[in-house]
Protein backbone atom coordinates (compact mmCIF):
# COMPACT_ATOMS: atom_id res chain seq x y z
CA UNK A 1 0.00 0.00 0.00
CA UNK A 2 1.30 3.44 -0.89
CA UNK A 3 0.95 6.28 1.62
CA UNK A 4 0.12 9.59 0.00
CA UNK A 5 1.86 12.15 2.20
CA UNK A 6 -0.63 14.92 2.89
CA UNK A 7 1.43 18.10 2.98
CA UNK A 8 -1.66 20.25 3.38
CA UNK A 9 -2.62 18.42 6.58
CA UNK A 10 0.91 18.48 8.05
CA UNK A 11 1.19 22.19 7.23
CA UNK A 12 -2.18 22.89 8.87
CA UNK A 13 -0.97 21.09 11.99
CA UNK A 14 2.19 23.23 12.12
CA UNK A 15 0.17 26.43 11.67
CA UNK A 16 -2.12 25.32 14.49
CA UNK A 17 0.89 24.69 16.74
CA UNK A 18 2.26 28.16 15.95
CA UNK A 19 -0.96 29.90 16.98
CA UNK A 20 -0.15 30.11 20.69
CA UNK A 21 3.32 31.46 20.01
CA UNK A 22 1.93 34.21 17.76
CA UNK A 23 -0.57 35.08 20.50
CA UNK A 24 2.19 35.20 23.12
CA UNK A 25 4.29 37.56 21.00
CA UNK A 26 1.32 39.74 20.05
CA UNK A 27 0.22 39.86 23.69
CA UNK A 28 3.63 41.37 24.51
CA UNK A 29 3.06 44.01 21.82
CA UNK A 30 5.42 42.28 19.37
CA UNK A 31 3.17 41.05 16.56
CA UNK A 32 5.40 39.05 14.19
CA UNK A 33 5.85 40.98 10.95
CA UNK A 34 7.02 39.58 7.63
CA UNK A 35 7.95 41.71 4.63
CA UNK A 36 8.01 40.17 1.17
CA UNK A 37 9.72 41.89 -1.73
CA UNK A 38 8.67 40.90 -5.23
CA UNK A 39 10.48 42.36 -8.21
CA UNK A 40 8.73 41.85 -11.53
CA UNK A 41 5.50 40.07 -12.31
CA UNK A 42 6.32 36.40 -12.76
CA UNK A 43 2.88 34.76 -12.42
CA UNK A 44 4.06 31.84 -10.26
CA UNK A 45 5.92 34.22 -7.92
CA UNK A 46 2.80 36.40 -7.65
CA UNK A 47 0.83 33.31 -6.61
CA UNK A 48 3.39 32.25 -3.98
CA UNK A 49 3.62 35.74 -2.51
CA UNK A 50 -0.14 36.12 -2.25
CA UNK A 51 -0.38 32.68 -0.63
CA UNK A 52 2.28 33.71 1.90
CA UNK A 53 0.30 36.83 2.73
CA UNK A 54 -2.93 34.86 3.15
CA UNK A 55 -1.15 32.40 5.48
CA UNK A 56 0.19 35.29 7.59
CA UNK A 57 -3.23 36.89 7.83
CA UNK A 58 -4.81 33.62 8.98
CA UNK A 59 -2.25 33.20 11.75
CA UNK A 60 -2.23 36.82 12.97
CA UNK A 61 1.17 37.62 11.50
CA UNK A 62 1.41 41.06 9.93
CA UNK A 63 2.57 41.04 6.33
CA UNK A 64 4.04 43.87 4.26
CA UNK A 65 3.94 43.62 0.50
CA UNK A 66 6.71 45.46 -1.34
CA UNK A 67 6.46 45.41 -5.13
CA UNK A 68 9.13 46.64 -7.52
CA UNK A 69 8.83 47.01 -11.25
CA UNK A 70 10.74 44.31 -13.13
CA UNK A 71 12.55 46.92 -15.25
CA UNK A 72 13.56 49.13 -12.33
CA UNK A 73 17.27 49.52 -11.54
CA UNK A 74 18.61 46.93 -9.07
CA UNK A 75 19.26 49.77 -6.59
CA UNK A 76 15.52 50.10 -6.02
CA UNK A 77 15.46 46.57 -4.68
CA UNK A 78 18.53 47.14 -2.49
CA UNK A 79 17.04 50.35 -1.12
CA UNK A 80 13.79 48.56 -0.26
CA UNK A 81 15.68 45.81 1.58
CA UNK A 82 17.81 48.40 3.41
CA UNK A 83 14.66 50.18 4.62
CA UNK A 84 13.14 46.90 5.86
CA UNK A 85 16.41 45.93 7.57
CA UNK A 86 16.35 49.25 9.41
CA UNK A 87 12.67 49.05 10.42
CA UNK A 88 12.44 47.67 13.98
CA UNK A 89 8.79 46.68 13.41
CA UNK A 90 9.81 44.20 10.68
CA UNK A 91 11.04 40.81 11.91
CA UNK A 92 11.39 38.86 8.67
CA UNK A 93 12.44 39.93 5.18
CA UNK A 94 12.39 37.83 2.05
CA UNK A 95 13.00 38.60 -1.58
CA UNK A 96 10.93 36.30 -3.75
CA UNK A 97 13.12 34.28 -6.15
CA UNK A 98 13.86 34.41 -9.00
CA UNK A 99 14.89 38.05 -9.35
CA UNK A 100 15.18 39.59 -12.86
CA UNK A 101 18.37 38.77 -14.78
CA UNK A 102 19.86 42.26 -14.38
CA UNK A 103 19.85 41.89 -10.58
CA UNK A 104 22.78 40.13 -8.89
CA UNK A 105 21.08 37.37 -6.88
CA UNK A 106 24.01 36.82 -4.52
CA UNK A 107 24.15 40.53 -3.74
CA UNK A 108 20.43 40.45 -2.94
CA UNK A 109 20.84 37.55 -0.52
CA UNK A 110 23.78 39.30 1.13
CA UNK A 111 21.80 42.52 1.52
CA UNK A 112 19.26 41.03 3.93
CA UNK A 113 20.01 41.37 7.65
CA UNK A 114 20.92 37.77 8.65
CA UNK A 115 18.74 38.09 11.78
CA UNK A 116 15.72 38.89 9.54
CA UNK A 117 16.64 36.38 6.83
CA UNK A 118 13.67 34.04 7.28
CA UNK A 119 14.53 32.20 4.04
CA UNK A 120 17.90 31.24 5.53
CA UNK A 121 19.69 32.11 2.27
CA UNK A 122 22.20 34.73 3.54
CA UNK A 123 25.77 33.33 3.38
CA UNK A 124 26.08 33.72 7.16
CA UNK A 125 22.99 31.55 7.66
CA UNK A 126 24.12 29.06 5.01
CA UNK A 127 27.44 28.79 6.85
CA UNK A 128 25.72 28.24 10.17
CA UNK A 129 23.55 25.51 8.67
CA UNK A 130 26.56 23.72 7.20
CA UNK A 131 28.36 24.06 10.54
CA UNK A 132 25.43 22.37 12.28
CA UNK A 133 24.21 25.48 14.08
CA UNK A 134 21.34 26.67 11.89
CA UNK A 135 19.67 29.97 12.76
CA UNK A 136 16.87 29.66 10.19
CA UNK A 137 16.59 26.42 8.22
CA UNK A 138 15.52 27.09 4.60
CA UNK A 139 11.78 26.53 4.39
CA UNK A 140 11.47 23.78 1.77
CA UNK A 141 14.08 21.35 3.15
CA UNK A 142 12.92 22.02 6.69
CA UNK A 143 9.36 21.27 5.55
CA UNK A 144 10.55 18.02 4.00
CA UNK A 145 12.13 17.03 7.33
CA UNK A 146 8.70 17.61 8.93
CA UNK A 147 7.10 15.41 6.24
CA UNK A 148 9.59 12.64 7.10
CA UNK A 149 8.59 12.95 10.76
CA UNK A 150 4.91 12.73 9.78
CA UNK A 151 5.47 9.25 8.33
CA UNK A 152 7.92 8.24 11.10
CA UNK A 153 10.79 8.14 8.65
CA UNK A 154 14.17 8.56 10.33
CA UNK A 155 16.69 9.28 7.53
CA UNK A 156 19.57 7.96 9.70
CA UNK A 157 21.51 5.35 7.75
CA UNK A 158 19.23 5.64 4.72
CA UNK A 159 20.51 6.22 1.19
CA UNK A 160 18.94 9.49 0.10
CA UNK A 161 19.28 10.77 -3.45
CA UNK A 162 18.65 14.50 -3.89
CA UNK A 163 18.05 15.38 -7.53
CA UNK A 164 18.89 19.06 -8.04
CA UNK A 165 21.55 21.33 -6.54
CA UNK A 166 19.72 24.63 -6.15
CA UNK A 167 20.56 27.04 -3.34
CA UNK A 168 16.89 26.96 -2.28
CA UNK A 169 16.36 23.20 -2.04
CA UNK A 170 19.06 20.77 -3.22
CA UNK A 171 22.09 22.14 -1.39
CA UNK A 172 20.41 22.88 1.97
CA UNK A 173 18.48 19.59 1.83
CA UNK A 174 21.69 17.61 1.38
CA UNK A 175 23.34 19.57 4.18
CA UNK A 176 20.49 18.99 6.61
CA UNK A 177 20.39 15.30 5.80
CA UNK A 178 24.07 14.77 6.63
CA UNK A 179 23.95 16.66 9.93
CA UNK A 180 24.73 14.67 13.05
CA UNK A 181 21.32 15.44 14.55
CA UNK A 182 17.71 14.24 14.48
CA UNK A 183 16.41 14.32 10.93
CA UNK A 184 19.95 13.84 9.60
CA UNK A 185 22.60 11.08 9.63
CA UNK A 186 21.66 9.95 6.12
CA UNK A 187 24.03 8.94 3.34
CA UNK A 188 23.38 11.51 0.65
CA UNK A 189 24.03 11.60 -3.08
CA UNK A 190 23.34 14.86 -4.90
CA UNK A 191 22.53 14.45 -8.60
CA UNK A 192 22.24 17.18 -11.24
CA UNK A 193 22.20 17.84 -14.96
CA UNK A 194 25.75 16.48 -15.38
CA UNK A 195 25.07 13.25 -13.50
CA UNK A 196 25.70 10.22 -15.69
CA UNK A 197 23.05 7.51 -15.40
CA UNK A 198 20.62 9.24 -13.06
CA UNK A 199 18.39 6.14 -13.03
CA UNK A 200 21.20 4.03 -11.53
CA UNK A 201 21.46 6.51 -8.66
CA UNK A 202 17.73 6.81 -8.00
CA UNK A 203 17.23 3.05 -8.25
CA UNK A 204 19.75 2.59 -5.43
CA UNK A 205 17.95 5.06 -3.14
CA UNK A 206 15.76 4.43 -0.10
CA UNK A 207 14.51 8.01 -0.43
CA UNK A 208 14.42 10.27 -3.50
CA UNK A 209 14.00 14.03 -3.17
CA UNK A 210 13.23 15.33 -6.67
CA UNK A 211 14.04 19.03 -6.97
CA UNK A 212 15.36 19.50 -10.49
CA UNK A 213 12.59 21.71 -11.85
CA UNK A 214 12.11 19.36 -14.82
CA UNK A 215 8.54 18.10 -15.31
CA UNK A 216 8.22 14.34 -14.75
CA UNK A 217 11.98 13.75 -14.91
CA UNK A 218 11.69 10.70 -12.69
CA UNK A 219 9.33 7.83 -13.42
CA UNK A 220 8.61 4.49 -11.80
CA UNK A 221 11.21 2.63 -13.88
CA UNK A 222 13.90 4.72 -12.15
CA UNK A 223 12.79 3.73 -8.64
CA UNK A 224 13.09 0.68 -6.46
CA UNK A 225 10.21 -1.03 -4.68
CA UNK A 226 9.34 0.61 -1.33
CA UNK A 227 11.15 3.89 -1.99
CA UNK A 228 9.94 7.12 -0.35
CA UNK A 229 9.47 9.84 -2.97
CA UNK A 230 9.41 13.56 -2.18
CA UNK A 231 8.45 15.66 -5.18
CA UNK A 232 9.49 19.30 -4.88
CA UNK A 233 8.64 20.24 -8.47
CA UNK A 234 5.79 22.67 -9.07
CA UNK A 235 5.98 23.02 -12.86
CA UNK A 236 3.30 24.86 -14.82
CA UNK A 237 2.74 23.04 -18.11
CA UNK A 238 0.32 24.18 -20.80
CA UNK A 239 -3.00 22.42 -20.58
CA UNK A 240 -6.59 22.82 -21.67
CA UNK A 241 -7.78 24.02 -18.25
CA UNK A 242 -9.40 27.23 -17.03
CA UNK A 243 -6.00 28.61 -16.06
CA UNK A 244 -4.36 27.40 -19.27
CA UNK A 245 -1.89 25.21 -17.39
CA UNK A 246 -1.68 22.36 -14.94
CA UNK A 247 0.81 21.71 -12.16
CA UNK A 248 3.15 18.81 -12.72
CA UNK A 249 5.86 17.57 -10.38
CA UNK A 250 9.39 16.44 -11.16
CA UNK A 251 8.06 12.90 -10.71
CA UNK A 252 5.70 11.01 -12.99
CA UNK A 253 3.18 10.36 -10.24
CA UNK A 254 1.24 7.29 -11.43
CA UNK A 255 4.21 5.06 -12.23
CA UNK A 256 6.20 6.29 -9.22
CA UNK A 257 3.29 5.63 -6.84
CA UNK A 258 3.22 2.01 -8.02
CA UNK A 259 6.74 1.54 -6.65
CA UNK A 260 6.72 3.89 -3.65
CA UNK A 261 5.83 3.07 -0.06
CA UNK A 262 5.12 6.80 0.39
CA UNK A 263 4.94 9.72 -2.03
CA UNK A 264 4.05 13.42 -1.98
CA UNK A 265 1.47 14.71 -4.47
CA UNK A 266 1.73 17.89 -6.54
CA UNK A 267 -0.03 20.07 -5.61
CA UNK A 268 -0.61 19.49 -1.89
CA UNK A 269 2.73 17.96 -0.92
CA UNK A 270 5.87 20.00 -0.39
CA UNK A 271 4.48 23.43 -1.43
CA UNK A 272 2.24 23.95 1.61
CA UNK A 273 5.15 22.91 3.85
CA UNK A 274 7.41 25.59 2.35
CA UNK A 275 4.83 28.16 3.37
CA UNK A 276 4.26 26.69 6.84
CA UNK A 277 7.99 26.74 7.62
CA UNK A 278 8.18 30.38 6.54
CA UNK A 279 5.63 31.15 9.26
CA UNK A 280 7.75 29.07 11.67
CA UNK A 281 10.88 31.09 10.80
CA UNK A 282 9.00 34.38 11.12
CA UNK A 283 7.80 33.44 14.61
CA UNK A 284 11.30 32.27 15.50
CA UNK A 285 12.81 35.53 14.20
CA UNK A 286 10.40 37.61 16.28
CA UNK A 287 11.11 35.55 19.39
CA UNK A 288 14.88 35.93 18.90
CA UNK A 289 14.77 39.66 18.18
CA UNK A 290 12.42 40.56 21.01
CA UNK A 291 13.90 38.13 23.56
CA UNK A 292 10.52 36.51 24.19
CA UNK A 293 10.75 32.71 24.41
CA UNK A 294 8.03 30.74 22.57
CA UNK A 295 7.37 27.10 21.77
CA UNK A 296 8.10 26.00 18.23
CA UNK A 297 6.71 22.79 16.70
N1 LIG B 1 12.46 33.74 -1.47
C1 LIG B 1 12.07 32.52 -1.89
N2 LIG B 1 11.81 32.31 -3.19
C2 LIG B 1 11.43 31.07 -3.59
C3 LIG B 1 11.27 30.01 -2.65
C4 LIG B 1 11.57 30.27 -1.31
O1 LIG B 1 11.50 29.38 -0.41
N3 LIG B 1 11.95 31.54 -0.95
N4 LIG B 1 10.77 28.78 -3.07
C5 LIG B 1 10.17 28.65 -4.37
C6 LIG B 1 8.73 29.04 -4.47
N5 LIG B 1 7.91 28.95 -3.25
C7 LIG B 1 8.16 29.85 -2.25
O2 LIG B 1 8.41 30.98 -2.43
C8 LIG B 1 6.73 28.16 -3.19
C9 LIG B 1 6.44 27.19 -4.13
C10 LIG B 1 5.22 26.47 -4.08
C11 LIG B 1 4.31 26.74 -3.09
C12 LIG B 1 2.99 26.07 -3.01
O3 LIG B 1 2.27 26.25 -2.05
N6 LIG B 1 2.59 25.31 -4.04
C13 LIG B 1 1.26 24.72 -4.10
C14 LIG B 1 0.65 25.01 -5.45
C15 LIG B 1 0.50 26.46 -5.69
C16 LIG B 1 -0.10 26.80 -7.03
O4 LIG B 1 -1.31 26.63 -7.17
O5 LIG B 1 0.63 27.23 -7.94
C17 LIG B 1 1.39 23.22 -3.88
O6 LIG B 1 2.45 22.66 -4.23
O7 LIG B 1 0.44 22.63 -3.38
C18 LIG B 1 4.62 27.68 -2.14
C19 LIG B 1 5.81 28.38 -2.18
C20 LIG B 1 10.91 29.50 -5.39
N7 LIG B 1 11.15 30.83 -4.89
TrEMBL record:
<keyword id="KW-0554">One-carbon metabolism</keyword>
<dbReference type="GO" id="GO:0009086">
    <property type="term" value="P:methionine biosynthetic process"/>
</dbReference>
<dbReference type="InterPro" id="IPR036291">
    <property type="entry name" value="NAD(P)-bd_dom_sf"/>
</dbReference>
<comment type="pathway">
    <text>One-carbon metabolism; tetrahydrofolate interconversion.</text>
</comment>
<feature type="binding site">
    <location>
        <position position="234"/>
    </location>
    <ligand>
        <name>NADP(+)</name>
    </ligand>
</feature>
<dbReference type="InterPro" id="IPR020630">
    <property type="entry name" value="THF_DH/CycHdrlase_cat_dom"/>
</dbReference>
<keyword id="KW-0560">Oxidoreductase</keyword>
<dbReference type="GO" id="GO:0004488">
    <property type="term" value="F:methylenetetrahydrofolate dehydrogenase (NADP+) activity"/>
</dbReference>
<dbReference type="InterPro" id="IPR020631">
    <property type="entry name" value="THF_DH/CycHdrlase_NAD-bd_dom"/>
</dbReference>
<dbReference type="GO" id="GO:0005829">
    <property type="term" value="C:cytosol"/>
</dbReference>
<protein>
    <recommendedName>
        <fullName>Bifunctional protein FolD</fullName>
        <ecNumber>1.5.1.5</ecNumber>
        <ecNumber>3.5.4.9</ecNumber>
    </recommendedName>
</protein>
<comment type="similarity">
    <text>Belongs to the tetrahydrofolate dehydrogenase/cyclohydrolase family.</text>
</comment>
<dbReference type="GO" id="GO:0004477">
    <property type="term" value="F:methenyltetrahydrofolate cyclohydrolase activity"/>
</dbReference>
<keyword id="KW-0511">Multifunctional enzyme</keyword>
<dbReference type="Pfam" id="PF02882">
    <property type="entry name" value="THF_DHG_CYH_C"/>
</dbReference>
<keyword id="KW-0368">Histidine biosynthesis</keyword>
<dbReference type="GO" id="GO:0035999">
    <property type="term" value="P:tetrahydrofolate interconversion"/>
</dbReference>
<keyword id="KW-0028">Amino-acid biosynthesis</keyword>
<keyword id="KW-0521">NADP</keyword>
<dbReference type="GO" id="GO:0006164">
    <property type="term" value="P:purine nucleotide biosynthetic process"/>
</dbReference>
<dbReference type="InterPro" id="IPR000672">
    <property type="entry name" value="THF_DH/CycHdrlase"/>
</dbReference>
<dbReference type="InterPro" id="IPR046346">
    <property type="entry name" value="Aminoacid_DH-like_N_sf"/>
</dbReference>
<keyword id="KW-0486">Methionine biosynthesis</keyword>
<comment type="subunit">
    <text>Homodimer.</text>
</comment>
<dbReference type="GO" id="GO:0000105">
    <property type="term" value="P:L-histidine biosynthetic process"/>
</dbReference>
<feature type="domain" description="Tetrahydrofolate dehydrogenase/cyclohydrolase NAD(P)-binding">
    <location>
        <begin position="138"/>
        <end position="289"/>
    </location>
</feature>
<feature type="binding site">
    <location>
        <begin position="164"/>
        <end position="166"/>
    </location>
    <ligand>
        <name>NADP(+)</name>
    </ligand>
</feature>
<keyword id="KW-0658">Purine biosynthesis</keyword>
<dbReference type="Pfam" id="PF00763">
    <property type="entry name" value="THF_DHG_CYH"/>
</dbReference>
<feature type="domain" description="Tetrahydrofolate dehydrogenase/cyclohydrolase catalytic">
    <location>
        <begin position="5"/>
        <end position="119"/>
    </location>
</feature>
<keyword id="KW-0378">Hydrolase</keyword>
<comment type="function">
    <text>Catalyzes the oxidation of 5,10-methylenetetrahydrofolate to 5,10-methenyltetrahydrofolate and then the hydrolysis of 5,10-methenyltetrahydrofolate to 10-formyltetrahydrofolate.</text>
</comment>
Amino acid sequence: MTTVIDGKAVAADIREQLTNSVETLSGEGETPTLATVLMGNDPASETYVSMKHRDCEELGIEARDVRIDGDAPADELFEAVENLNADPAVNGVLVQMPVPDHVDKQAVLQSIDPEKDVDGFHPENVGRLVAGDARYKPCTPHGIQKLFESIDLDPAGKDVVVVGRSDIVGKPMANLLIQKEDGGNATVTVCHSRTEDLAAKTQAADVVVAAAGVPELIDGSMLSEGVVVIDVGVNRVDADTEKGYELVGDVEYESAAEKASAITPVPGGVGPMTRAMLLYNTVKATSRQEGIPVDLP
